[in-house]
Amino acid sequence: MDLWARVGMVGALSCYAHRKKNVLAQAAKSDGESGSGRPELKLVQVLFRHGARTPLRTIPGIEQVDWDPTLLEIPAQTKFPYIVTNLTGGPRPFSPYEENYKKTVLKGGVIAGQLTKVGMQQMFTLGERLRKRYIEESNFLSSSYKSSEVLVRSTNIDRNLESTRCLLAGLYREQKEGAVTIVTDKAESEILYPNPGNCQQLKLMHRDGWASLNLHQDLLEDLKNIKQKLGISNEQKVDFIVLLDNIFAEQAHDLPSYPVLKNSMQLIEQRAIDSFFYITKNNSREVLQMTVGPLLNVIEDNIMKAIEPPSSDIKTRKLILYAVHDVTLFPLLVAMGVFNSKWPPYAADVTLELYQHSKDWFIRLIYNGEELIPRGCKDGLCPLEDFLNALSVYSTEPQVYKMICSQTEETVLQHN
């Protein structure tokens, strides 16, 4: 069944085949403003990576840099009180990831994966950019936080929750009406990152993908050369993703990286990207359905509710924020056809704007402040039908996700 039949929206959107070119011309100049003859901004969805943090893992076999606890100090302007609940308003779920990070104490005394004051400032700056666009220039959002206007969702990981706080501080400048709530889900059912915890097929694929890296001789040769220059023995397990993670973290905080790592930065980033593609089988259709399919389905659902609210008594939100990770943005950009062969940096954001012009609907995609043309589209302001049809092959409803992820007991045993 095609996308429009599935969501029952055949009559909601008009045919785009005969749309006039001047609609796009006017829309391109509107820059989010609404007015006579111009497209009206209806919904903004922002998916962002957290700010700079401490490394997730150390590089084995070499001396660590010093991660001083003062790097975690909170800048005053980024303070913005919030509470965390589960998806239904109950208590915050337990976070196994945070418990795991505590097991890795870096030189200097801080633990792995923690948002730093550099990262906090990055997120505050992103919030200021959103404020300028959606409050100061377009008057789309209220100047103060309102829960009726904004939905905020994050993975249940401290650096993401704190990044969200800093973004909101930059967006609303301490102005809020009522409590600020960030909703999150338990780890086993989270959809804001590729989740092998609730997808057996994805777990097996990742396991096989890591094993397949040993078959790529060019990649292994490059890794061997870098390990030799660093003085790391062959017995020490290290990969390009770990190397890149440490370089990004050190450079973001002006900490001294090994000259070998600094001089090999471009190669390490490319090989980390190659490794990610190998592990995920080049982000095939099935892989994208398992990694970002459920998230794409939620994004589509948000759009449909903005077009046709489920109830006249319910005021749909104008802004939806999702605090995600680099491993979320990577396949998301691939699915949208705009991956630029660069690892998503700290505080990277993918923003989707939904516009209405008469009976027509459009999507604008912005990545790190730059307008891009997504898959299936010819212009920056893309007919919604074209956009959703292109993504429909990856968008995954819950029951479809469960089917794709399921494995027979015999298949699981074969991989164990």
Automatic annotation (TrEMBL):
It comes from the Eukaryota. GO terms for cellular component: mitochondrion. Its EC number is 3.1.3.2. GO terms for biological process: lysobisphosphatidic acid metabolic process. One of its GO terms (molecular function) is acid phosphatase activity. It catalyses: 1-(9Z-octadecenoyl)-sn-glycero-3-phosphate + H2O = 1-(9Z-octadecenoyl)-sn-glycerol + phosphate; a phosphate monoester + H2O = an alcohol + phosphate. It holds the Pfam family His_Phos_2. Hydrolyzes lysophosphatidic acid (LPA) containing a medium length fatty acid chain to the corresponding monoacylglycerol. Has highest activity with lysophosphatidic acid containing myristate (C14:0), monounsaturated oleate (C18:1) or palmitate (C16:0), and lower activity with C18:0 and C6:0 lysophosphatidic acid. Belongs to the histidine acid phosphatase family. This is Lysophosphatidic acid phosphatase type 6. The gene is ACP6.
